[in-house]
Fold each of these.
Amino acid sequence: MSEIIPVGLGERSYEIHVGSGLVAKAGVLLKPFASGIVAVVSDTNVAKLHLDRFCAALRAAQIDARPITMPSGESTKSFAGLEQLSSALLNTGVDRGGLIVALGGGVVGDLTGLAAGLLKRGIDFAQVPTTLLAQVDSSVGGKTGINSRQGKNLVGAFHQPVLVMADTALLDTLPKREFRAGYAEVAKFGLLGDAAFFAWLEKNWPDVFAGGPAREHAIAVCCRGKAAIVARDERETGERALLNLGHTFGHAIEAGCGFSDRLLHGEAVALGMALAFEFSARKGLIGAPEAARAANHLAAVGLPTHLKDVPGGTPGADALMDLIAQDKKVRRGTLTFILVRDIGRAFVENNVDAAEVRAFLSDKLAER
Ligand code: NAD
Ligand code: ZN
C-alpha cells in the first residue's frame, strides 16, 4: 500500500510517495525523471545497508546508476563536504538531462539538494529519505543547505525535488535513538496545527515505533501537513515559520552541546517544544495543564523535556541567550518565537522580550 501526496507549487509541483517497500519500485518511479546518468548519493551507514539494493532497482529499469558515498554525520554538511560531493558528482558525468538522488537522512538530503541546485546551474534531484526525520520533514519543501562557522544551515538555497519517495521499511534499520529523535518532528506537526493528530499519537505512538500501518499513517499525515504549508508559503515569508516550533530554544541548546552526539537535533527540538509550551503558559497564553500534556507525551516516548535531561548539562542562561541571538535576528531587545495558544494552535510572535526569555531560562536552569 502506498499513498501519494501532491505538493502544489505550480511548475515546481511534485509528488511524495509514502509506503512500505517502495525501494523495489524505485526504477519505475524514477524512470520518468532520468533520461541520462543518475547519481545516487548516500552516506557510509546507509550505503552499507541499502545502496546496492537501491541501485539494482534502478538498473532493473535500465537506468545508468552511479553510487556515491559520503562520510556520515552532520560535519559532512560543510563547505568541505560540498566540495567533495560536487567533485564526485561531476566525475560521474551527470548533467541536466540526468538526475541526482539523495538516499539518506537529512544530512545527505540537505547537502545533495544544495549540490544539485548549484551544479551546472541546477540539476534535477529526488529525495529518498531514510530517517524518520527526513521522511516527515527535511525531504519535503526544498530547503537545502550546509553549515558554516557562523551557524547551522546558513549557506543554502531553495531547490525543490522532482519526487520524494519515503519507503517506510527503510526505517527498520534506523537506530532506535534516531527514530525517537525523528519522532519529535512527528509530534511537532500535531502540536503546531493538528490537535486530533496529537491525540491520535498519544494513543498510537507504540504502533508508530513498532512499524506497520500506524507508522505509514503518521508519516503520511506529516507529509500532507508539510506539503500544505509549503504550498501556501514556499519561501517562509509567513506560515512556514510555524514549522520552527521548538527550534529557537532547540537550536540554541543543540549549539550549546556543540552539535554533538550528546543531543540529537530531534531531541533538542523535543526539549525546545516543551520549553516553548511552558514559556507560553508562563505568559498566560495557554493553560498549564495543556502545556504539561504536550511535555508529558514527549517524555513518555523517552525524549528530553527538561534542561537537566541533557547529558553533560547545557550552557548557562547568558550563553544560551547569546546562541539564540546568533540564530535569530534580535531587534531592539525583542525576539521572534513560535508560541502556542493550545495544542495544535501555534502562532508566530515577533515581539518576545529577550529579558523575559532570559529570566525564564534562568528559572528553568535553577530547577532540580
Ligand atoms: P542524519 O542524516 O545524520 O541521519 C542520522 C543517522 O542515521 C546517521 O548516522 C545516518 O547515517 C543514519 N541513517 C540514516 N538512515 C538510516 C537507516 N535507514 N538505517 C540506519 N541508519 C541510518 O540526520 P537526520 O536526523 O536524518 O537529519 C538531520 C539533518 O536534517 C540536520 O542537518 C538538519 O539541519 C536537517 N534538516 C533539514 C530540514 C530541511 O527542511 N531541509 C528540516 C529538518 C532538518
Ligand atoms: Zn527540526
Amino acid sequence: MKIALITGITGQDGYYLSRFLLNENYIVHGIVRRSSNFNTQRIDNLISEYGPEKKLILHYADLTDSSSIHALVSKILPDEIYNLGAQSHVAVSFLNPGYTADVSISGTTALLESIKNSPKKIKFYQASSSEMFGGKENTLLDETSLLDPKSPYAAAKVFSHNLTKIYRDSYGIFGVNGILFNHESPLRGETFVTRKISRAVGRIKNNLQSKLTLGNIHAFRDWGFAGDYVKGMYMMMQHETPDDFVLSTGETHSVKEFSELAFAHVGLDWKEFVITDKRYERPNEVHHLLGNSEKAKKILKWEPETSFEKLVQIMVEADVKKAEQEKLLISEGLLSPTWEHPIGL
Ligand code: NAP
Ligand code: GDD
C-alpha cells in the first residue's frame, strides 16, 4: 500500500484528495493544526470510515513550525507528499501578509528539505495557483505564461512554485507544481465568492437572509469542480517524469454570471438581492483568469468533467439543504441567526 502525507487535509481539496487516495487503497496521513475548536468537520466522515482501520491517520503539526514537519516526514516516510496547506484567502493575505508568506514559504521549504535529507525517494506535489499569473484579459494562460503576482498570497505561491522547480533541478527530487485555476464545491470555504453566493441563495430562499453584499462582481474566473481537480493532482504524481501542469476548464465567467445563475436556480432574480460594497474589494485585483490545460489533457489525459452550470447547481442545491437544516435549528433555539461573516469577507 502506498503512503501519502497531505498538508491541508482539513481544507476543501484535502477532503476530496483524501477520499480519492483512500479509494485508490492508499494509507493517508494528514497534518492538522492546533485550533481551539474542532477543525476536522470536512473529513469527519472519512475519519469514521477509515480511522479505525488506521488507513487515515492524523497528526498535529504546523507548516510554520519546521521542526514539526521534519519530525513527521522522517517518522512517516511517505511515498508521496501533497502540500495543500496554506492561508489561501487572497483578501486576507493583504491583511496578514507575514503569516500568509510564512505558511507557504516556510512550509514548502521545510517539506522540500525533509525530502532532500530523507533516505527514501519521496514525491512532492506543490499546490501552485493561477493567482500567480496576475490575470490578463483575452489571454489563455498556460505553463509558459509570465508570473505576475498581485497579492501577498500570490507572491508567496510564486516562491514555493520556484523552490519546487529548484529542488527538482538541483537535487533530482520528483517535485511537481499543479497550477490550478479556481475550483469549488459545496465544501468550499464560506468566504470565497462562489460559496458566499450559494450559501446566501440557500439562506435567502429559506428567509434566513435578505441581501447578499459582494465586492467586484465584474471579476472573471475559470471555475471548475474540486473533485475533478484532485484527480489531476494524483495523475501528475503518477507521471513518469516530474513536471508542471495547468488544470483549468478553458471557460471564464464573471461573479455576476455566477450570481445570476445561482439565484435563477431557485427561481429568484439576483438583482433583487445582490448589493455591492467597496469593503469587499481588494487593494489590487486579479480581474480576469482563463486557463489552457492542453498539456495536462495531452500528457496526463486529464480533463474536467463538470460544467460551470452543473457546478453552480451542485453548490446551490447543497446550500439550500443546509439552510433548511439551519432554519430548523434556529427555530429550536440551537443556532443563532447570523448571516454575514462577523469580520466581513
Ligand atoms: P482551504 O480550504 O483554505 O484549505 C487550506 C488548508 O490549509 C486547511 O486544511 C488549513 O487548516 C490548512 N492550513 C492553513 N494554515 C496552516 C498551517 N499554518 N499549518 C498547517 N495547515 C494549515 O484551501 P483549498 O481550497 O483546499 O486549497 C488547497 C491548496 O490549493 C491551497 O494551498 C490553495 O492555496 C491552493 N489552491 C487552491 C485553489 C482553489 O481554487 N481552491 C486554486 C489554486 C490553488 P484549517 O482547516 O485548520 O484552516
Ligand atoms: N471572496 C470574495 N468575496 N470575493 C469576491 C467578493 C466577495 O464578496 N465579491 C467579488 N469577489 C471577487 C474577488 O474580488 C475575486 O476577483 C473573485 O471574486 C474570486 O474571489 P475568491 O472566491 O475569494 O477567490 P480568488 O480567485 O481570489 O482566489 C481563489 O482562487 C485562487 C486560484 O486562482 C483561492 O482559492 C486561492 O487560494 C486560489 O489560489
Amino acid sequence: MQARENRRVVLAARPKGEPRAEDFRLETVALPSPGEGQVSLRTIYLSLDPYMRGRMNAGPSYAAPVEVGEVMEGGTVSQVLESRAPALTPGDIVLGQTGWQEYAVAAARALRKLDAARAPISTALGVLGMPGLTAYTGLLNIGQPKPGETVVVAAAAGAVGSVVGQIAKIKGCRVVGIAGGRQKCDYVANELGFDACVDRHQTPFPRELKAACPQGVDVYFESAGGRVFNAVLPLLNPFARVPVCGLIAQYNVAQLERGIDRTPLLMGAILTRRLRFQGFIVTDFAAQAEDFARDMTQWLDEGKVRYREDVVEGLENAAPAFQGLLQGRNFGKLIVRLAPDPTKL
Ligand code: NDP
C-alpha cells in the first residue's frame, strides 16, 4: 500500500518579536504506519492557543520549546483511521496533542476518546477543554470570588476570559470584561451577561474602566499585562486576588523597553494593599479535571455558560490565524478545521 501523504507545519525559524510567515514552513511528508500500541489519525480540528508563541522561543520555560524543523505543537481532535491498540477502533474520535498536521501517528495511551453525543467534539479544545479548565481552576482556586465582589477579566471575549466571567457571574459577582473593540464588548455584555465591558483600544480606557468599577476590583483575572494591567493596578482593593494566567501583551516582546522602573510602585501596592498575585499553569490543577467536566457540562446544559468558536479553514491558514491571535484578531476560541467534522455530516 502506498504511504499516505501528510501535510504539516513546522517551525522554520525562531521569531524575533512578532512571528512572520517565514518562521513557519508547510511541508509534505509520508505518514508512517502505526506500530504496536499506536493509531494513525486524521486531524479534524487543530486548536490555536497563545502558549504556542512561547514554544517558538529557545530557553527555559515551564515546557520544552519546539525545535526548529519540528512540527508545531498543538491540541487536536482527530478520527482514528487505523488502530494497533485494543482501546481504540477506526472511526473513534479522540483528543490529543498531535500538532499542526493533517495526519498523525500517536500512542493510544496519549489520546482521550471523546463522546460526540455528549458535546460537539470541537468543544474539547475550548469550553470543555484546556481553556475552560484554565478559567475554572484559576478563578476558583486563586481568585476565590465571593458574592457581591467585583471581578475584572482581561481578554474577555476569548476562550479563557469568556468562561472566567461567566463562572464569576454564577458565583454572584459583579463582572467587568476588557476586550478589543466595540463588537467584542457588545458580545461580552449582551450575550455573555457580563455587567459591563470596556474597550481597551479606546483612548480613555483607564478612565472608562475606573467608571465601570465604582467599588474597586476584588479579583483581576490577568491574561494581558502591559497597558491593561497598568489600568487595573490602581483599582485593586485591599486583599484583592490576581490569578496571573497570561501576559499576551508581552509574548512578542523580544527585549524589554528601557524606561522608568515601575517595580517599586508595584511592590508598594502589593504591600500596602496586601494584594495576592499567583501565577499558574493549567496543569497545576490537573487533579480538578473531573470536577470541572461535571460542573461545566451542567452549566452548558443549563445555558449558564455560552461559548463562541472562531473557525478557520485549512492548514495553510493556521499560521496567519495564529499571527492574528497575538494581535487580537480572533473572536472566540480559535480553531482550524483540517477535515470535515464527521459528526456533523
Ligand atoms: P484568546 O481567545 O483570549 O485570544 C487572545 C486574546 O488576547 C486576543 O483575542 C486579544 O483579545 C487579547 N490580546 C492580544 N494581544 C493583546 C495585547 N497586546 N494586549 C491585551 N490583550 C491582547 O486566548 P486564550 O483565551 O486562549 O488565552 C488567554 C490568555 O490566557 C493568554 O494570555 C494565554 O497565554 C493564557 N492562558 C494561560 C494558561 C495557563 O495555563 N496559565 C492556559 C491557557 C491560556 P482582545 O483584543 O479582545 O483584548
Amino acid sequence: MRTVYTDEHRHQDGKFELIEGKFLPPFEMPRRAQIVIDRVRAKKLGPVTAPDSFDLEPVHRVHDKGLVSFLQTAWDEWVQAHGCYDALPITWHTRGFRKKPPLPEVIDGKLSYYAIDAGTPITAGTWRAVKGAVDVALTGVKLVNGGEKAAFSLCRPPGHHAGSDFYGGYCFLNNAAIAAQAFRDLGAKRVAVLDVDYHHGNGTQEIFYNRADILTISIHADPLQEFPYFLGFADETGKGKGEGYHKNLPLRWGAKWDKYEEALTTAMKALKKYSPDVIVVSLGLDTFKEDPISKFKLEHEDYFRMGEMIAGARKPTLFVFEGGYAVDALGINTVNVLSGFEGKR
Ligand code: OKP
Ligand code: ZN
C-alpha cells in the first residue's frame, strides 16, 4: 500500500513534557516517524508520496474554530509573554468552575482553557507539524476515495486525544476524525473508526458521540488505570441518534495477545455488522510489551495478526498513525500491521 509522509512533522520537537513528576524530553519525538518511514522503505511496503496541501475547511468540520486559531497563534502569544520556552498550562477547567467559561484574554488562561494535560508542549513549529499531519491524513483520504484499497497516513503528531475544542495527550488536531468526516463529505454513507492505540481515543469518541453515520470503536487500557482517566468506559455507547454507535473495549494492565485478540474479535464483529463504506484505523503501536509509558504486552508477531484481522472486514481502509513510544521497535511493529493487512508476513 501507499504511504503518505512529509518531513514537516520534525517541527514538533518539544523540549519537555511533565511526566511522573519530572520534566523529561518528550516521548512523542521526531525520531518516531523517521524510524517508521525508514522501515516502510526498507520493507518495500509500497510507494511513499508527499501530501497535497488542503485548506482548513475539513478541519473546521470537526474542530471548533477557536481551537484551530488558538493553535496557530499560541506560540507567538506565549513567546511575547514569557520568552522562548515550550508553552505548557498548569491550571485546568475542572469541577466547581463555570460550566461554559469565557475564553481568557491571556495566553496562560487560553492554554488552561484548551489543554487537557501538561504533556503536550506547543513550540515554534507545532502548527507547521500539525498542519502537515492533517494534510497527510487528507491525502490518504483522497487516495482511498480514489479507489486504492488501503493507504497509510504516517501522521505525526498524533491526533486521537484531540476533541472538538480541546487538545492534549500529544495531540493537537484529530487526524483520524478529520479523515473520517472527509470520507463522509466525499460521499461515504457510513464510516467506521477503529482505534487500536493503547490509550483511549477520547477525542474521536467526543467528536462523533451523537452520530450514527460514523461508528467509533476503541480498544484501550482501562481508564481507571490509564490516561485519559475520565472517558473510555464500557458503558459509553453513544448518545441520541448516536446511541449504539460507539463501543469501548477497555482492557486491564498486563493484557497480552489472548485478551487483546478477544477484544479485537468483538470490535471486528461490530464493525462488520455496521458494514461501513470505509474504515479509518487509528494505528497506535504503544500496546507493545516494551513501550516505556504503557502496560500491555503485545509482541512483534501479534501485529501481523492484528493487520490480518482488520483486513477480514474487506473494506477500503485508511491507517492513520497515532502513538507508540518504544521507538526502536516502532518501525517493525507498524509495518507488521500493514503487511499483515496485505496478507504478507
Ligand atoms: C498519546 B497517544 C503516562 C502519562 C502519559 C499522555 C499520554 C498520551 C499518549 N502515564 N501522558 O495515545 O499514544
Ligand atoms: Zn497511545
